[in-house]
Amino acid sequence: MKKDITVEDAIKELEPEIDKILMEMGALKIIDGKKEYAFGSINTIWSLQKKLLKERYDIDWETPQERNPHITVD
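The structure assignment produced for this chain is given below.
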């Protein structure tokens, strides 16, 4: 577990791993060098980020959906 890291930096470090998982799930494709996420994949991304931030960095992070429960995101 790393200490003294911002949430933004931790998420950036986790991005390749999360992208790999999403590609295996079929929720992400690379087309012409650009990431193309499947519709509705943002909740999966946030769930993975939340889980890995807690496991790897002991960061208790609230997803944007958790911070804004009155807004529907898909």
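Interim note for the steering committee: Residues 7-67 form one domain. The first strand starts at residue 28 and ends at 31.
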